[in-house]
Design a protein that fits this description.
heterodimer; A: 80 residues; mainly alpha; 4 helices; 56% helix; B: 224 residues; alpha+beta; Aminopeptidase; 7-stranded mixed sheet; globular
Amino acid sequence: MERDLIIPRIQKTLIAVLGHDHFEMRDDLTAPDVEGWDSLTHMSIITGLEKEFDVRFKLREINKLRNMGTLIDLIGSKFV
Amino acid sequence: MDRDEHMNASIRPARSSDIPFLVESALAAEKSGGEHAPIARLFGLDEHTVRGLITAMFEEEIDGCEFGLSSFLVVDNGVGPEAAVAGWIEGVNENDMLSQLLRANLIGFTFPAEAMEHLRANGPAVSALAIPRQRGALQIEYVHVAPTARGKGYAKALIQQHLEAAIQQRVELAQVQVFAHNVTAIALYTKLGFQHTGTFVTDHPNAPNLLPHTEKWLMERVLH
């Protein structure tokens, strides 16, 4: 799946969980940069992304996520 | 710890066979002197179930958070562990990931979906006590001494060893979080040079049902 198709769907999931859109979908965006993205919402974000893209992440995959760019790449890799 | 008085006791890194003791340590520390572990209440689970889930998290052997086997030092009396303390350098691990996210990932992958629904409902009651941890700082967590081994200075000795290792690594700050009613722990941390630097309070009406106390302190010690 193309990055351009993945990014808006991640953005939609983040907005649904966090209740705001006060963030830019940059590759170097990290959780601490985003208001409300804490340990509690993180679990909902991961679950929400699995539902949105109908994929399952492995623990070691999401423990390697450094920023938004690596999240986009991980989701893209599920469709190769 | 005075080795002359406790010839058979020594400090060592935790290993897989210590997991049952670490699970009990995590549960006891979570209770913070109260009857209920917040980790059970938050997820709407009984303690027996939570014990199994915490065991599963430790078995994943994820570095860099309070459920990481590699975070723990234990006092071993020659037969098995009698005390344990977790310590790790925040955000300094294989992928530089913050411990709160590692912990969240572990819980998300281990706990059942119904439990996650409980968490979503209970989250707002406790979120004010999610104290941010400073990247690069030593984090001390899950300080526990078996009831039969108390009064021997084990907790102090374990924390000191974590502090000394951090100082050798040029870590500049140590942080510990403690519920405000836990005067014994606060006295220990104060004796070890920690100072009260932050107060976090939740006034959510459901918080007293979920937590041992509604006020949590951040205590810090400058190492360099």
